[in-house]
Amino acid sequence: MSEVRKSEKRQLELFAELATCNPFLPRRMELEKQVLGSKFEEDGIAWSRRLEFTDRERFNVTRLTDAATELIDKVQQQVASGKTLSSESLKHYWYVVTYALLYRHIVYQDPASLRDPDSTAAIWKEFRSDYSRLVNLPGLSDEVAQSPGHLFAILCQIHRAFFNIYSFILGESLPSVELRGKVWQSIFTCDIDRYRRSLFDRMSGLTSLITGPSGTGKELVARAIGLSQFIPFDEKHSRLKAPDETSFFPLNLSAMSANLIESELFGHRKGAFTGAIVDRKGWLELCPAHGAIFLDELGELDLALQVKLLRVVQQRRFSRIGATKERNFCGKIIGATNRDLDEEMKSGRFREDLYYRLCADRIETPSLRQQLEHRPEDLYFLIRHIATGLVGDDSDSLCSQSMEWIEANLGSHYPWRGNFRELEQCVSSIMIRGEYVPGRSAKVDSSEQDDWTRDAIKTSLTADELLQRYCTWMYFQTGGYEAAARKLKIDRRTVKAKVDQAMLERLKTG
Ligand SMILES: Nc1ncnc2c1ncn2[C@@H]1O[C@H](COP(=O)(O)OP(=O)(O)OP(=O)(O)O)[C@@H](O)[C@H]1O
Fold first, then answer.
1. Entry's SUPFAM superfamilies (predicted)?
2. What is the ipTM score, two decimals?
3. Which residue among 187, 296, 327, 340 is buried most deeply as judged by most CB within 10 Å?
4. Which atom of ligand 1 is nearest to the CA of 296?
5. pTM of the predicted protein model
């Protein structure tokens, strides 16, 4: 017996890669193009960047779903007429089936409706019968094809994770795109096939550590990971096995005393300390298996509590304060810090053994400046998001007012030391007062600036050196030769000739 045609085998292979790749990384787009060939709509934005598709964007999504259906039909027909599939191609066929099921039944659902038992039951019914039809291929053993309930749970998780990552983490610059890609990996790893087979219910045992400057979205990343954990599906009752309770528990360690943190996390027994008048469950006990505890400002955790936390992370066991009974912790721990943990370990403020229990899954959030250096247009996009949050649909005028004010007063190289949080404050302040006064550290943080103004005051600069440095400073502030020339009231070419590239570089890197 001969195998199915080469062209179908190649399509199966391509589609399988598409169905299993990280949807946030550029490879996804390349694969979409390869699968659709000339049918790919070039000006359709990557599907993976939208939750609500415009008609134009829908082109590629719909065509890919149709292509998957067509491919499945062709392979089924060839197999029915006596052709065979190698074990490798059978595996690829299975991935195409999972792709088709995801797009035919789940992707257009509001993720919240998948938590509602009534709507889930209806979706599941259709999914189940489609599944039976598509999986009906000789040789597709149970080893390759997973049970419909398990697949349904995984596809719902994929949809939920995509929604969370996409809607929480904004920005189109490469650092933002890569950040979304990494968050996806923290949930599904870099091998989603292995995840589906054996890791889906083990990931909560692995901690995630998020580092990066203040105001760069570490809590958002933690939320995206924490709210996207695997929830099994109960086929008998046609619903996801998730209690309705909260599943993300954020704890800001810098804002609480060591005693309070301990009591919040571990809970206590009645009489364990003054004020413990009743037994109380802590978050380690309340957190469900698909939930997460977020320990913000982890670098500030008291050393004695670090020892206790190490035990939870290592053995997944804990007891309430004042109790001897041991309990299991089933959720996930996510930590974040803006401190340099290497430095903290060197100075003995952070335990090495705890660090080495936390560092397998580490994510670094990029600063706003890194994002804007890569893609200055993001400033407008982020301001629009903030302005919409402040004034709703009437955000156009605040958006342009903010852009104009920032351009005229801060310039395009402004360092945004407070990151996204500072940008939020800046737009709010422009809305209230028509201006923004940067904090001292953001305004005069460049030692380079101190150097040249100090030299000028000390009268140790020649007129030409002074002009050179002043032109460079103005260019740095305004972001363009034209704008700098206008402010200095000199010719643009003079500014261009005077800008000192080495000084400019030092200014940019702070
Ligand atoms: N990439 C981003 N996309 C959308 N919003 C963001 C992003 N980064 C930060 N923000 C917003 O900036 C504010 C601060 O974010 P968040 O609290 O997550 O930062 P953080 O890094 O945890 O800060 P800190 O270290 O001070 O706790 C929030 O309002 C958040 O919504």
1. P-loop containing nucleoside triphosphate hydrolases
2. 0.97
3. 187
4. 27
5. 0.83
